[in-house]
Design goal:
Blueprint: E1 4-7, E2 13-14, E3 17-18, H1 20-33, E4 37-38, H2 52-66, E5 71-75, H3 81-93, E6 98-102, H4 111-122, E7 129-133, H5 135-138, H6 144-153, E8 157-162, H7 167-176, E9 182-185, H8 191-196, E10 201-204, H9 211-222, H10 226-242, H11 250-258, H12 275-287
Parallel strand pairs: 1-4, 1-10, 4-5, 5-6, 6-7, 7-8, 8-9
Antiparallel strand pairs: 2-3
């Protein structure tokens, strides 16, 4: 099962191209720090601005650098079912362990359309598949009944990244889905509340910056060491929030640049943080002794 802490890893750029050396170094550091998995080319990996070849190359680099030490869940979702199928097939060919399928964005399909979309992808490869419901970005959530249908009808669909913002929905999902169906938090600040009602871990933005801390928090809670987990949550809560002070992944890439791990470079329409927010983020990193 894909439990624990999975870092939604950034895609570093240098002079307009993917910085392959920096990406490999990030993967090695994440593994040393104790994460359970890596999720390349999700939202945090700036997938909307990568072309097809870049998208697959990033997945391939992460797979190679991980060398089987952690699971690689490739972000291969799209608002076109055909494109999602092609990306997922290509990710399977380069060795990904699973795929993450975001809800189609902008075109706002019906629940029946969502069901057919995810079912089509699930039948196109042998990769295990994790749904990704994030209505704040996509304009539509994967409904509870749609999740139940997909879990029942598609053996390849083994979990969901839940970024709907409420423990109540996690409780509802847990009550209607098989126990083996994995629920992962899609929001660092809600990881512990979600785990309290049935989630098994997190696909994390914050673990880009503080991988050891997030991994220890998740492991502590899973092992019943609730107080230890709560202390880590309290200590890093401001980081969890400040990494979303502007649109993800702008703050997390800025933070990694402040830490000297990547060059701060984005692709339009994303751009640098405003000075006030940058100063606030820098202060948080200093307080946590991350810089």
């Amino acid at each position: 099962m894909l439990e624990g802490t999975h870092t939604a890893i950034v895609t570093p750029f240098r002079n307009g191209k993917v910085d392959e050396a920096a990406l490999r170094q990030l993967v090695a550091w994440q593994i040393r720090e104790g994460v359970d998995g890596l999720v390349p080319v999700g939202t945090t990996g700036e997938s909307p601005t990568l072309d097809f070849d870049e998208h697959i190359r990033v997945i391939e680099i992460v797979v190679q650098a991980a060398a089987g030490k952690v699971k690689v869940i490739a972000g291969t979702g799209a608002n076109s079912t055909h494109e999602a199928v092609e990306l997922t097939r290509a990710a399977e060919e380069v060795g990904a362990d699973a795929s993450l399928q975001v809800t189609p964005y902008y075109n706002k399909p019906s629940q029946e359309g969502l069901y057919r979309h995810f079912k089509k992808i699930a039948g196109a490869t042998r990769l295990p598949m994790i749904l990704y419901s994030v209505p704040s970005r996509c304009g539509v959530e994967i409904g509870l009944e749609t999740c139940r249908r997909l879990a029942r009808d598609c053996r390849a669909i083994i979990g969901i990244k839940e970024a709907g913002g409420t423990p109540e929905r996690v409780s509802q999902l847990r009550g209607m889905l098989p126990e083996k169906f994995v629920i992962l938090s899609g929001d660092d600040s809600l990881t512990l509340p979600f785990m309290a009602v049935g989630a098994k871990g997190v696909i994390s933005v914050a673990s880009n910056v503080a991988p050891s801390a997030v991994a220890r928090m998740v492991k502590a809670f899973a092992r019943g060491k609730v107080t230890a987990a709560q202390r880590l949550h309290a200590r890093f809560y401001n980081l969890f929030k400040n990494l979303f002070i502007e649109t993800n992944p702008i703050p997390v890439k800025a933070a990694l640049a402040m830490m000297g791990r990547i060059r701060e470079e984005y692709r339009l329409p994303l751009c640098e943080m405003n000075p006030t927010n940058r100063a606030k983020l820098r202060q948080t990193l200093r307080k946590l002794k991350l810089i």
